[in-house]
Amino acid sequence: MAEKVTGKRWVDGGPMRLGVLISGSGTNLQAIIDAAEEGRLNADVVVVISNHHDAYGLVRAEKAGIAGEFVDRAEYTTFRAYNARILEILLEHEVDAVAMAGYMRLLGSEVLDAFPDRVLNIHPALLPSFPGPSGIRDAWDYGVKVTGVTVHFANEQFDDGPIAAQEAVRIEEDDTIESLEAKIHEVEHRIYPMALQWLAQGRIAIEDGKARILPFAELPGR
Ligand code: GRF
Q1: Do the Cβ atoms of 211 and 127 come closer than 8 Å?
Q2: Which end of the chain has the least Cβ crowding within 10 Å, N or C?
């Protein structure tokens, strides 16, 4: 099967127009905004969508001068209609790619099909271990010695899809759940902008369900 290279059209173009989906505090959103402002990520966050009206991430968006939208699942009779509204907002803002950053719901095929291989998610464990909403706590409770962070392409399952980036975090004997959370978040805030930059650079090739990061020299057309 031929490799599909994601994001190719941005390689020599302007910044990737990014939509970010959140549910909560938005520290990953902030890391993405900061990386874009500091020139480490060739992207403009053009819209932030939250499924909670009181998500602090919406305040972060406002402070950064980014459009924020609250989409209430309860207002839509079907999951399909709810996702159709999310898609409508992403298209209104001419989004090129989507980052799920603590968005605690699945994305429907309506959205995923509109952005093939251009929707990333972050998970606070080394997938496929400890999927689900409490990845840090589950790894801690299990007693593993190594956990970490995964950035992966989203599909219609929770915490599934080709892995773009992973970094391990050791659980030391003197760690607490709080110190582990802090270490995990530090890694998240570093590797999510990095993986998004690879996407913006058109450097992620997906083949047989696996993502491969291309060195610049291998980029098609170079
Ligand atoms: C992060 O740990 C992320 O991995 C998980 O939810 C948390 C969101 O945190 N999916 P924040 O809203 O980015 O602060």
Answers
A1: no
A2: N
Ligand 1: residues whose CB is within 6 Å?
22, 24-28, 101-102, 122-124, 188
Atom 8 of ligand 1 has which residue's CA nearest to it? 102
Confidence check: pLDDT of 158 > 80: yes
The answer for residues whose C-beta is within 8 angstroms of residue 195's C-beta and 6 or more apart is 120, 151, 164, 165
- For 40-48, what is the mean pLDDT? 97
Residue 101 has a pLDDT of 98
Alpha-helical runs (H) found in 143-211? 177-200
Residue carrying structure tokens 């992620």: 204
Is there a catalytic annotation at residue 93? Answer: no
Strands, E assignment, the chain: 4-5, 16-22, 43-50, 67-70, 97-100, 119-123, 146-153, 163-170, 204-207, 210-213
Q: Are 19 and 93 in contact (CB under 8 A)?
A: yes
The rounded distance, in Å, linking the Cα atoms of 90 and 46 is: 9
Which pLDDT score, from 0 to 100, does residue 216 have?
74
- Given ligand 1 and candidates 23, 27, 28, 120, which is best to mutate, with the most ligand atoms within 8 Å of its CB? 28
Q: Distance of CA 19 to CAs 124, 141, 157, 170, 179, Å?
A: 21, 34, 20, 32, 31
pLDDT tens digits along 80-91 = 999 999 999 999
Q: What DSSP element (H or E) covers 214?
A: none
